[in-house]
Design goal:
The complex is a heterodimer of chains A (95) and B (180). Chain A is of the alpha+beta class and 95 residues long. By secondary structure, chain B is of the alpha+beta class. Chain B has a single domain, classed as C8orf32 fold (Roll), CATH 3.10.620.30. In chain B, strands 5-4-3-6-7 form a 5-stranded antiparallel beta sheet. A two-stranded parallel sheet of chain B has the order 1-2. Classes of the chains: A alpha+beta (95), B alpha+beta (180).
């Protein structure tokens, strides 16, 4: 009688463990599908001037027009490691 | 990858929401951060996120670059650190599943500009820009990677189940033998 109880408990245990492991596997399988890019649906920004970007080489400078028409910027200007906002974020994350 | 570099990458992925331009418009890092709304501390498209991440990494002393190029024929931008592609358009930092689809045209940071071939930047700006299609293709690449992984997990579960069954049958058999 006791052995039968153990067998029943063992069967139930195996069934539950299998169910739990299968559920975990299915969740793990589905997870990358739903979170790879998340909710990143592109939202167009209206009102910005549309211009075809251009490149202009001036000696060692690489000037690009990637903002308003007629507005030229040296490409390296877009990377700003010394910008106070950047320094603040790096400082906060470093702590 | 350095754990702090990963932390900065993950921060940009989590904190900068994706917002595409109408046409092409590059924001400076402070402007990208100022566009944040709600739970996000910034907003921008691929080039804005890449430039922000490269700025953060450079500020922390890493030799990072913003790379501009094509992803499956569409204009795209990402950050490069020690040869690794850091795509900041993801919602969390993780390796790109299809690095073979990232074709660099030029890379730059606050110190230097490197064109992969003469006139590469001019060609870059002639690439088609379709953010919807690009994100869809990126999602597909994720799913194609996720499918074999899922099958491997399910296979592992099946094998575990069979092994459980065998062990259980054997144990049951031993008990029956003992009883007889």
């Amino acid at each position: 009688m006791a052995e039968k109880d153990i067998e029943t408990t063992l069967s139930l245990g195996i069934a539950l463990v299998s169910l739990a492991v299968t559920s975990l596997g299915v969740i793990m399988w589905l997870r990358p599908r739903t979170t790879s890019l998340g909710s990143r649906e592109p939202t167009p920004v209206s009102g910005l001037s549309v211009d075809i970007p251009k490149v202009h080489y001036d000696d060692s400078q690489v000037l690009v027009s990637v903002r308003s028409p007629g507005e030229w910027h040296e490409l390296r200007e877009f990377i700003q490691p010394a910008n106070p906002d950047i320094l603040r974020i790096v400082g906060n994350l470093y702590e | 990858m350095n754990s702090f570099a990963y932390k900065l990458w993950d921060w940009v992925c989590h904190q900068v929401s994706y917002r595409s331009d109408n046409g092409e418009y590059w924001y400076f890092p402070s402007e990208t951060l100022a566009r944040g709304a709600g739970n996000y501390k910034g907003a921008g498209d691929c080039d804005d996120s890449a430039n922000l991440l490269t700025s953060l990494l450079r500020s922390a002393g890493f030799n990072a670059y913003t790379v501009v190029g094509s992803y499956r024929g569409l204009g795209h931008a990402w950050t490069k650190l020690d040869g690794e592609i850091l795509d900041a358009t993801y919602t969390f930092a993780h390796p790109v599943p299809d690095p073979q689809n990232y074709h660099p045209y030029a890379m730059f940071n606050d110190q230097e500009v490197i064109e992969m071939w003469p006139g590469a930047l001019s060609q870059l700006f002639q690439l088609a820009r379709d953010e919807c299609q690009k994100l869809t293709l990126m999602n597909q690449a994720q799913q194609e990677t996720a499918a074999p992984l899922g099958l491997a997990i399910l296979g592992g579960i099946a094998v575990t189940g069979i092994m459980f069954g065998l062990v259980y049958s054997k144990a049951k058999g031993v008990r029956v033998e003992k009883r007889t």
